[in-house]
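Take a careful look at the sequence and tokenised backbone pasted below. I need to know what the token row says about the fold.
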Amino acid sequence: MGTFKDGVIIPDAPLLCENGTRLYIGHLQKEEEDYPYWFRDPVHGFIRVSAKEKKIIDHPYFQRLRRIKQLGMTHYVYHGAEHNRFGHSLGVMELATRAIDLLWEKHASLLQWMPFERRYIRQLVRLAALLHDLGHPPFSHVAESLLPEKNQLPGGKPNEAKTAKHEDYTRAILLHSELKPTFRTLG
């Protein structure tokens, strides 16, 4: 029998449902050192994440995406429209990873990336995909018109009087919040 510790299921534990969603988290065998954690996704199967990526996923700013619906208020009309930004962000990271890996596989001779460059670029693509929706407000795009002006966000420029979008909030969170030190620890 396995144990559940710090949000991770140790290998011999059965999969447990997280907060009523269809995502499951587990721990892979030691031979998968680069991506020792995984999430069970109903669309993409197992999505593997590194220990560094898990630090970001475990952060409250990322965990809040579990409560933000991907389709705004559509779930009030279509009861099956329950997908959230958390699952979406993990899925986008998985698809971006597949795309960069396929690009490398098909065009390695053109790209001529050194192994460290390939790992670095792959990690950048994964992080960009994982974090692209971090700044979404509740009810997703539906509530964007209620956001304040860009100049009111941390790091906003005084002459930016346009209404902020979720991308602006994402940038503010990444550059001016408690999440920023997490990136410094990633190495």
About this structure: The domain at 51-184 is CATH 1.10.3210.10 (Hypothetical protein af1432). Confidence is low (pLDDT under 50) at residues 7-31. The radius of gyration is 18 Å.
